[in-house]
Amino acid sequence: MANTKRKIGGEDTNITFEDQQQINTFARKSARIQELKDEIEQKKKDLQNLEDAGDEVMLLDDDTAPIPYPFSTLKNFC
Fold this sequence. Notes:
Layout: E1 3-8, E2 11-16, H1 17-58
Organism: Stylophora pistillata
Coiled coil: 26-53
GO molecular function: unfolded protein binding
């Protein structure tokens, strides 16, 4: 296949098409892993918020008091 010369660290280095494909694959997978880690962190925050809200509801003294709840967050759980 085709070779490409690239200057890496002051030296010319040959990178084959296959090498470049592997580099691209690695970069895509690495980016996806970071996206998933970010998503997990957001889910952990959401879970903590829901647990906190559940604790607050349990601590209510008045059983007839209305419980405010934003319905916009329901779409994340359906």
